[in-house]
Amino acid sequence: RISLSGECYLDALDACYKNLRKKLNDRDVLAITDYNVFHTGGGYHIVRKAFERLVRNELPDSKGAERDMLVETKLHPSVTILKIVGPCHTVSSFLNTSAVVMNTMEKGLGKVICVFTYGSGCASSMYQMRIDDLAYFDSMEVWKLKFYRNALKCEPEMSFIHNFYVQTWMKFTYRPIGRKTFRIPVSKYEDDVYYLMEIDGFGRRF
């Protein structure tokens, strides 16, 4: 059974698909798309439902094996990172687009991606893009190696900090003191990592 939020997601998908198809002079979107990317606020299951909904719209007589093949070729290249790190909400459409590039690299040049973005249904959109050049990305194999290497590298003081933050979960009007308490030097901070400095009385994070 699909939740109410899931129904809103799929309703927005239907509306955006209808608008994009109109702009494409009623051409089948899947037929002219190599890869599909979806907003992933709720995990892989809703993404697969959304993709299979598009397939049934264009190929109502398709069999299960045919749909599975389309999932494998058109959807799975975009969900590799999603399956590892989980839903990323706001950045998910862009992260999943990056996953396509990282999975295909040079083979993806000239390919067309259909992207569905979703903002609680109020600011949803669907558009196509073509890969004309490669930005600086590691291939998926290299990224996975770096990711798991960093995941395994956990110094003892980091475990203490994690436990400290668990104890302060959902606190408002709060300034984290874990880094100061455990005397973690700035040199230990990782690049490209967000460090929480303050939570105000409204739960806003800075």
TrEMBL record:
SUPFAM superfamilies: Thiolase-like
Cross-referenced Gene3D superfamilies: 3.40.47.10
Residue span, Hydroxymethylglutaryl-coenzyme A synthase C-terminal domain: 3-62, 71-205
A Pfam family per the record: HMG_CoA_synt_C
A biological-process GO annotation: acetyl-CoA metabolic process
An MF annotation (GO) of this entry: hydroxymethylglutaryl-CoA synthase activity
This protein's name: Hydroxymethylglutaryl-coenzyme A synthase C-terminal domain-containing protein
